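User: Structure please.
Assistant: Input sequence and predicted structure:
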Amino acid sequence: MEAREQARDAELKKELDATLHARRELGEEYESALVDSFVDKVEQRLDSVVDRRVRRQLAEQQMVVARGSRGGQDPGADSWGERFGFAVVSLVLAIPLSAIAAVNGGRAGLLIAWFGIVGVNALHTLRWAPARRARRESDWEE
């Protein structure tokens, strides 16, 4: 896997070099189109990475359920891996969202985008709060 990712990163670097070279040759009037094209390629790369990770996580969860190895753990139990994965995906997707918001809406658009990103993360965190509280209380009772 790592070799494949390094190859994709090398491809992305080549694309960036080609975009910069084309910008030098074509001039500033084509800059917007070149940047849009490169951002599209970066978004496609991010989408493929996120899709692969989500598929892997779903497959792992299906295996756990199929094996019945939940062993009395309640379905709302805290999962550090899921929370960490959500945070990573959120930050990865924040990059193109920030760029798009800043280009189209300026500072106001950027602020709105980041309020949305923070809001989604806050709601995700609140979703886990009751399970953590209940587990902490049961730990004290034992």
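The mean pLDDT is 79.
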